[in-house]
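re: ur question from yesterday

yeah so i grabbed the chain u mentioned. its 185 aa long if i counted rite. heres the sequnce exactly as i have it in my notes:
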Amino acid sequence: MSRLWARVAGLFRSKSFIGADQTGNKYFSRMEEIDVKEKRWVVFRREEDPTSVPVEWICWLNGQRKRAPTPEEMAELEARRERVKLNVARLKKEEEERKAREGTGRKITSIGKVEGPDLTSFVRHFPPDSKGAKSEEASEEADQSRVKEHEPEIVTAEHQPPEPRTTEPSGSGSSFRPGTWQPPS
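ran it thru and got these structure tokens back, copy pasting raw so excuse formatting
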């Protein structure tokens, strides 16, 4: 009951004004005797819009800062933010000018579709093939070798070659023998 009474009495206790920000929000604090902890809060000027609270004040409200930001500190940080915005705009402009000079800027013709990569520099590394039939012959040979690999080999029980003892599992299909594989020791 005494805790409840202390909380109710705390509502009428004096609160100390800490500061205000540029938008007119006011910040207060009060020491709680029960929790022995400082309570911090903000009273919004207009609507309760948490996005109108500057980062420095948010840090103070959450207890990440011991002291509230001073007006001088806020002015300095605002000037720094403006310098960063100007630098970003200048760098973007320089980047656009560089792309325009180099001619590497691509124009987007439709939204949601991306052009494929420019492979002209990649293709230049390969010498042109003097005879077009070479690549066809090579692909036919590769196809034939693949077919030979997958043809089932018919082996009778009398002429089976001895299986090498390896630590890796081997065999598939008709040549598979359960229990022949031993784990590495």
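noticed a couple things. The mean pLDDT is 76. also Strands lie at 16-20, 26-32, 37-43.
anyway ttyl
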